[in-house]
Amino acid sequence: MGSRSNGDGPSTSESLLLITTEDRRQRRSNNSSSPATPVVVFSTVVAVSGSYVFGSAVGFSSPAQTGIMDDLSMSLEEYSVFGSILTIGAMVGAVMSGKIADQLGRRRTMGLSEMFCLLGWLAILYSKVSWLLDVGRLLIGYGIGVLSYVVPVYIAEITPQNLRGAFTTVNQLMICIGVSVMWLIGTFIPWRTLALIGIIPCILQILGLLFIPESPRWLAKIGLWKECESALQQLRGENADISEEAAEIRDYTETLDQLSESRVFDLFQPEYAKSLIIGVGLMVLQQFGGVNAIAFYANSIFISAGFSSSIGSIAMVIVQVPFTLLGVLLMDVSGRRPLLMDLQESKGVSPILALVGVLLKFKQVFTGSFSLGMGGIPWVIMSEIFPINIKGSAGSLVTVVNWFGSWVVSYAFNFLMKFSTEGTFFMFSSICCVTVLFVAKLVPETKGRTLEEIQASMNPFIVN
Prior knowledge:
The chain has 464 residues and is an all-alpha fold. The chain has helices at residues 12-28, 38-71, 76-104, 106-125, 130-158, 164-185, 191-208, 216-221, 225-236, 243-259, 273-288, 291-296, 298-304, 309-334, 336-347, 349-354, 359-372, 377-385, 391-419, 421-442, 451-458. Helix 3 (76-104) runs parallel beside helix 5 (130-158), helix 5 crosses helix 18 and helix 15 (336-347) packs antiparallel against helix 20. The two termini are 15 Å apart.
């Protein structure tokens, strides 16, 4: 297993790693900003095309419901299966996402995911019977389950430390845009045309993946040092000095190789407990704050309140996309913790106001503040806190927890509302308050730090 501590302090390998990491941080302190090179920007755009696919898949079922039920003579129960089976496929994809990304690499994993999404959209497009519709939805779910892990991880691994938060949050922005586009245009076009439109970003990402570099950190993990340096040079610019960053990646990767055999059970070792608690905790709190319950049933909520569903959808888009864009701009300025804590408090306002009968008026505040804070930041932090040797297993677990939470909340919401509307939103509000305390006590600020610095500070590899 390599060098370990004797119980009295860090191991020799760990001490060396922390010393060299701190030394490099001091040497970089006067020149910590790196530019957003065209390669980094283009690679991020290609990666978040998968996020757009994610959003379009989630947003498809609401505007398509009436057309599909009429054309295929589906009952409400059958259509509910069609809508919810996406989450089942996503959970299966999430279970496998980390292992696939570690074995195939980040680029090929995104390409494989898009092939599943492409086949799924084609199955929906040509469906004449409900079972084929379900198969298509299941395939798309599998694809976006994998994409929900690999996209933020890839972006975090290719971007400079001063830009990582903003670039990773573009993942959430594109999900919001994908949902919004489907909601808006689905009001005016047939559902098969809407499915055809869903195919376009799948093809664009598959083509774009041919022109972007692999993650340097994944290349280092599998021992391809020359390819790692080449990819890093391509990302940072032809004339950029990558020696410090490349050396830090190499030192950290070699130390991890000495300290762990990268088995699945390593994920549950005490030295990784803090990272695991933070990653899983944020995903649980994100989902049980109730946002997906509102998102999945937005149209029915608006209709039950006497509003037009199209007007309600447009209002959601007007608030959601700008708030998410604001989160992108603030991520590397204010940091992760302030956005999580301050906006989680504002997010708790809307359930409280719902108790006095004005849910529909303030639901946009809830959705907007979620998009700015808890929507994207847990995925940013997930991509930052796990060392490369356990990132696959840990990322899979965290992503599965997220999708399982989404399924639980979306399935139980109607039953909870029938039992007690006030109680349901009071529960969501209480969870928002717990989130503030959780972030204040446990979640570190990761702004302006390299992945190696974050991981070395959170996972000290001490075995007593």
